[in-house]
Specification:
The strands form two sheets. The chain has a seven-stranded mixed β-sheet. Strands 8-9-11-10 form a four-stranded antiparallel β-sheet, with helices on one face. It has two domains: 13-144, Glutaredoxin (3-Layer(aba) Sandwich), CATH 3.40.30.10; 162-205, Antioxidant, Horf6, Chain A, domain2 (Antioxidant, Horf6, Chain A, domain 2, 2-Layer Sandwich). By secondary structure, the chain is α+β, with helices and mostly antiparallel strands. The relative contact order is 0.15. It has helices at residues 23-27, 43-54, 56-61, 74-88, 102-106, 146-161, 184-190, and strands at residues 13-16, 19-22, 31-37, 64-70, 96-98, 121-126, 132-138, 164-165, 176-178, 196-199, 202-205. It is built from seven helices and eleven strands. Helix content is 31%, strand content 24%. The longest helix is centred in the C-terminal third of the chain and has 16 residues, at 146-161. Bound molecules: benzoic acid (BEZ). This is Peroxiredoxin. Belongs to the peroxiredoxin family. AhpC/Prx1 subfamily. Keywords: Antioxidant, Oxidoreductase, Peroxidase, Redox-active center. InterPro entries: AhpC/TSA (IPR000866), Peroxiredoxin_AhpC-typ (IPR024706), Peroxiredoxin_C (IPR019479), PRX_1cys (IPR045020), Thioredoxin-like_sf (IPR036249), Thioredoxin_domain (IPR013766). Residues 3-158 form the Thioredoxin domain.
Length: 210
Amino acid sequence: MAILIGDTAPDFTAQTTEGEIRFHDYIDGSWAVLFSHPKNYTPVCTTELGYTAKLKPEFEKRGVKVLGLSVDKIEDHEGWARDIEETQGTALNFPLIADDGTIARQYDMIHPNADNTLTVRSVFVVGPDKKVKLKLEYPASTGRNFDEILRVIDSLQLTASHQVATPVNWKNGEDVIIVPAVTNEQAKEKFPEGWNEVKPYLRIVKQPGA
Ligand code: BEZ
């Protein structure tokens, strides 16, 4: 059955480039990003892994642990990691799972109508409560935008602790929207500096904490 937003991210134990990991223990109260790669020694994946390694300080700043997955053997991961460092200028600095297909199937990362053996480019953002907060799927031929994944994490973390939603193309620090469930009476308490009521259902407010 497909894993949907709001579901508990299935637990698993995996062999990785940083030793054995049990996913739920690895999350350990942090946020997590689990993302899959079609195959080792492939060009798009090589660029994605190098760029994600470069973003490590950004993930750390947000309390996010990153975990990659490719259905290949651990020995192959180690060789590929050397290529990633050589070609992308940054060494892998997060665990890369060596999967035999078990986790890929558990997470529906293989789409038979796309390819029966390769995983698509899946991304799962998991919260500290181990629930899936975001799910993205790209075809093998299209590299993902990891800056967008950071942007979504900013929105997820903000909206988890304030009764706001983020508008189209929002970036951290920009104005946000008061969620419809909050009445104007309640909004006066939560947002004492006021808001701009464009329509009764569209109330723009400064980002809390910005
Ligand atoms: C890649 O990562 O470059 C790739 C993998 C599978 C199909 C196409 C591209």
